[in-house]
Amino acid sequence: MIIFNRLPLFWQQLSKISRYLSLFVLCFALVVGCSSNQTETSSQSNTTDNNRISVGTTLKPRTLDPADSYELAGSNIIYNVGESLYTYKLGTTEIEPLLATEMPQVSEDSLTYTIPLREGVTFHDGAPFNAEAMAFSLRRFMENGGKPSFLLGDVVDKVEATGDYELTITLKQPFSAFPALLAFHGTAAVSPQAYTINSGEFSPNKLIGTGRYKLAQFDSDSISLDVNENYWGEPAANEGVDLQIYAGNSANLFNSFRTGAIDVAYQSLDANQIENLIDGASQDKWQVIDGSGTVVNFISLNLKQKPLDKPEVRQAIASIIDRALINQRVFKGQAEPIYSLIPTAFDVYEPKFQKAYGDVNVDLAKELLAKAGYSASNPAIVDIWYSSGSIPRSIVAETLKAFVEQELGGVIQFVPNSVESASFFGNVGKGVYPAALADWYPDFLDADNYIQPFLSCSKGSEAEGCQEGAAQSRGSFYYSDRINQLINQQRQETNPETRQAIFTEIQEILAKDVPYVPLWQTKDYAFAQSDIEGVIINPSQNFPFWTIKNKR
Question: Which pTM was predicted?
Answer without folding.
Answer: 0.86
